[in-house]
């Protein structure tokens, strides 16, 4: 995931009382006759369209929740229903006004907190956190106002409306996010990006952005030092739209609304500042992508020092409170699953026992935390002595020199083995490994000693955390992923572990087990 420093063209482009709309030194020395033809008139800004749709659904959600809570609460409120008709009308009118004020204040708070800004919608958890934070702060403000002015408000009305409102708002935004994800996969509702920098860095950034269409960045062109208009960027199909000296012309030609600077050697600080001044405020945006990939947001902090946007990257630590919380979560989770799933485990054990000769459980030595070996447990899904055939089968399919590869159409599987593997039922005995501390519920998949021997220095970082029953790469493609993609996802997990991240991975694992898809085997 690319974590850029976003420099909005709305903020830093003033000098005294005059806005600097053009650089004092031209960014391009290319004659006008050789500049690319201007792009057609841009369509309506997708950011505003999407924000308006979110605002409409937010309003509908709040109207439904607040007025629904008012009707339900006062219908069941004994003190209100016991009074006369005129008093009930008085209460209804007054709380209707209160409900309208609450809805207006809630909508305003959501806007002030930037919950509909394009930079946070559709990707990551920032959108959800802002909604919850804005709503909780509004609830606190209402409580303070009621206390200071001694307002006699029904507590239950507010205690019901706020939690329900937050939940329905989050559900509404989640539904919009699913729709937005589909649209972005088609290239819609995304920032049109022009990459500027060296060819290697631009190709790398393009590849990273292409992995995640949900991020909302659609690369439409690149400006590289030696680029010629009409060529393509490296092995990609992205057109080269000019050089680093013709960025403004390339913006017009491609219709891009976002410039991402992928490396700084080609552009001096003065030229970057001039480029930022030349962008149209509110419509065109500048992003500087540092040479950091696969680093999670909580580890990154920006600190402006002497006009320099310095990025502080915290070193990942796995000790103290973090290690204790993960271990406690593993013990609690594995114990609960073993208890609840014991009938299923008994049925699977009987199926394994009576459909093929051999033991019910299969033990295999795997490499765990800090390279320490341990015996991993599984329900046996293959015939006895299947390990002796593995090397020949891997050599036959040409993957003996790469870790994390499985045998396709494995002939060693028993009658029920393929089904057990498809739905990951053979993995359940590893809950015992988790309970006694050999493994974790979530972590990089433990591998054999021979596979670990093929690790490079980067892949060895998988061993600094406890191996897991499931992990990020398993819920992102399972057996369909290449080794490079699998190790990239595992390293992202190692570098950015969090307890909430484990919960999300476990939820995605449950969905993958219930609906395994074609890639599961």
TrEMBL record:
By sequence similarity, the record places it as follows:
Belongs to the bacterial sugar transferase family.
Q: What is the protein's membrane topology class?
A: Multi-pass membrane protein
Which residue numbers delimit the Bacterial sugar transferase domain? 326-514
NCBIfam families the UniProt entry points to: EPS_sugtrans
Q: Which Pfam families does the record associate with it?
A: Bac_transf (PF02397), CoA_binding_3 (PF13727)
| Spans traversing the lipid bilayer | 54-73, 93-113, 134-151, 157-176, 331-352
- Determine if Transferase is one of this entry's keywords: yes
Cellular component (GO) terms are:
membrane
The record's subcellular location field reads: Membrane
> Where does this chain mainly localize?
membrane
- Can you say what this protein is called? Undecaprenyl-phosphate galactose phosphotransferase WbaP/exopolysaccharide biosynthesis polyprenyl glycosylphosphotransferase
The protein's UniProt keywords, in alphabetical order, are: Membrane, Transferase, Transmembrane, Transmembrane helix
Gene3D superfamilies, alphabetically?
A: NAD(P)-binding Rossmann-like Domain
Name the InterPro entries for this protein.
Bact_transf, EPS_sugar_tfrase
Mention one GO molecular function.
phosphotransferase activity, for other substituted phosphate groups
Query: Does the keyword field hold Secreted?
Result: no
């Amino acid at each position: 995931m690319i974590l850029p420093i976003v420099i909005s063209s709305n903020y830093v482009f003033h000098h005294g009382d005059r806005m600097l709309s053009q650089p004092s030194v031209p960014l391009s020395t290319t004659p006008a006759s050789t500049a690319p033809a201007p792009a057609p008139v841009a369509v309506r800004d997708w950011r505003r369209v999407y924000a308006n749709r979110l605002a409409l659904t937010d309003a509908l959600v709040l109207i439904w929740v607040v007025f629904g809570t008012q009707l339900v609460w006062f219908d069941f409120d004994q003190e209100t229903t016991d009074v006369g008709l005129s008093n009930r009308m008085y209460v209804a009118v007054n709380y209707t006004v209160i409900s309208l004020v609450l809805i207006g204040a809630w909508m305003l708070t959501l806007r002030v907190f930037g919950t509909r800004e394009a930079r946070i919608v559709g990707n990551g958890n920032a959108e959800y956190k802002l909604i919850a934070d804005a709503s909780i702060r509004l609830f606190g403000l209402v409580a303070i106002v009621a206390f200071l002015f001694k307002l006699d408000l029904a507590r239950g009305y507010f205690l019901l409306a706020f939690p329900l409102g937050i939940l329905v708002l989050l559900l509404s935004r989640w539904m919009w996010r699913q729709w937005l994800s589909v649209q972005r996969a088609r290239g819609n509702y995304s920032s049109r990006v022009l990459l500027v920098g060296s060819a290697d860095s631009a190709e790398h950034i393009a590849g990273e952005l292409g992995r995640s269409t949900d991020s909302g960045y659609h690369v439409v062109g690149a400006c590289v030092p030696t680029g010629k208009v009409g060529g393509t960027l490296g092995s990609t199909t992205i057109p080269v739209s000019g050089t680093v000296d013709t960025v403004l012309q390339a913006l017009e030609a491609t219709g891009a609304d976002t410039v991402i600077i992928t490396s700084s050697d080609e552009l001096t600080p003065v030229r970057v500042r001039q480029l930022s001044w030349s962008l149209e405020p509110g419509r065109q945006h500048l992003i500087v992508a540092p040479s950091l990939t696969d680093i999670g947001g909580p580890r990154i902090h920006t600190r402006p020092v002497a006009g320099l946007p310095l990025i502080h990257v915290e070193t990942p630590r796995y000790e103290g409170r973090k290690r204790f919380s993960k271990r406690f979560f593993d013990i609690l989770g594995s114990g609960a699953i073993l208890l609840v799933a014991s009938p299923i485990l008994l049925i699977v054990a009987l199926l394994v026992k009576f459909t093929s000769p051999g033991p019910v459980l299969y033990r295999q030595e795997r490499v765990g935390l800090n390279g320490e070996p341990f015996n991993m447990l599984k329900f046996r899904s293959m015939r006895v002595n299947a390990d002796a055939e593995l090397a020949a089968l891997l050599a036959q399919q040409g993957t003996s020199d790469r870790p994390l590869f499985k045998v396709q159409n494995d002939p060693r599987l028993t009658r029920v083995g393929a089904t057990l593997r498809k739905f990951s039922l053979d993995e359940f005995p590893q809950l015992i490994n988790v309970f006694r501390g050999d493994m974790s519920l979530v972590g990089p998949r433990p591998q054999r000693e021979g596979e670990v021997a093929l690790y490079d220095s980067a892949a060895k970082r998988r061993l600094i955390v406890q191996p897991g029953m499931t992990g990020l790469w398993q819920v992102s493609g399972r057996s369909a992923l290449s080794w490079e993609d699998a190790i990239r996802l595992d390293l992202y997990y190692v570098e950015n572990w969090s307890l909430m991240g484990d919960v999300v991975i476990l939820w995605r694992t449950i969905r993958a087990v219930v609906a395994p898809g074609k890639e599961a085997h």
